[in-house]
Q: What sequence folds into this?
C-alpha cells in the first residue's frame, strides 16, 4: 500500500530558529514529490521535486529529495511567526496529479 | 491566476440530509479532485475526474458520490450525511503542464461541514 509519512507531527519553535521537516514515502511508482503550506485555507504550493540531490530554494525555505532514501526534507531558516502553518508533503506516483498526502507537520513559531 | 471556488465555506447539516458541495474552476483543467482533511490523517482522496461525465474512486469513496456534467464544475454529494462525515473538504483541479512556479495543482479554499 502506498504511503507518505511526515515527521514530526507537530513542532513548536521560537522565532529565528531553523527547522527541518521530514517526509518519507513508500510508493509503487514515483514521478514527483510536492510540498505545500496550509494556513487556515487552501494549501499553497511550495516546491515540486523530481530529481534526487537537487536543492530547490525560495527565500528562507529550501527542499531536497533523496530517491535512494525515499525521502525529502523541507528546511526553514530564521523562522518567523508567519511560517506557522501545516506543511504537507505529497507524492505524485504517475504524473496524473493523483496525489498521496502525508498527515502533515504542524509548525508553530512563537515570538 | 487560477481560481478554484468552493461556494459553500461553512455548512451545518443534520444526519440523513443530502448534501451538495460545489466546486468550480476557471482554467479549463481536465482533472478535478475531492479530498477530505482530518486532524492526524492528512488529505485523503475521495473521488477524482479526468473528464466530463467521468469519475474514479479515490481512497475513501464510501458514503460519497460525485457529478461532473460540465468541465468546470465538480460536485461532491453526500447522499445521507452522517456524523463521521464532519470534516473539511478540499476541491482541487490540475493541469498536466506546470505553471511558471512548477505547480500543477490548485486547491479551493475548503468547505467546513459539520453533521449534527
A:
Amino acid at each position: 500500500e502506498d504511503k507518505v509519512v511526515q515527521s514530526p507531527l507537530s513542532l513548536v519553535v521560537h522565532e529565528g530558529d531553523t527547522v527541518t521537516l521530514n517526509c518519507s514515502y513508500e510508493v509503487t511508482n514515483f514521478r514527483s514529490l510536492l510540498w505545500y503550506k496550509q494556513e487556515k485555507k487552501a494549501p499553497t504550493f511550495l516546491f515540486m521535486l523530481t530529481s534526487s540531490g537537487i536543492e530547490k530554494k525560495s527565500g528562507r525555505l529550501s527542499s531536497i529529495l533523496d530517491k535512494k532514501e525515499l525521502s525529502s526534507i523541507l528546511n526553514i531558516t530564521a523562522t518567523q511567526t508567519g511560517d506557522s502553518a501545516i506543511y504537507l508533503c505529497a507524492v505524485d506516483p504517475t504524473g496524473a496529479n493523483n496525489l498521496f498526502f502525508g498527515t502533515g507537520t504542524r509548525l508553530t513559531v512563537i515570538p | 491566476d487560477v481560481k478554484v471556488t468552493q461556494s459553500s465555506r461553512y455548512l451545518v447539516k443534520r444526519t440523513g440530509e443530502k448534501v451538495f458541495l460545489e466546486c468550480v474552476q476557471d482554467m479549463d483543467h481536465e482533472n478535478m479532485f475531492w479530498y477530505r482533511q482530518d486532524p492526524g490523517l492528512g488529505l485523503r482522496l475521495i473521488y477524482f475526474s479526468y473528464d466530463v461525465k467521468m469519475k474514479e474512486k479515490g481512497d475513501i469513496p464510501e458514503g460519497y458520490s460525485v457529478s461532473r456534467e460540465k468541465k468546470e464544475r465538480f460536485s461532491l454529494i453526500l447522499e445521507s450525511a452522517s456524523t463521521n462525515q464532519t470534516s473539511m473538504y478540499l476541491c482541487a483541479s490540475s493541469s498536466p503542464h506546470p505553471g511558471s512556479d512548477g505547480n500543477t495543482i490548485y486547491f479551493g479554499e475548503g468547505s467546513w461541514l459539520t453533521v449534527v
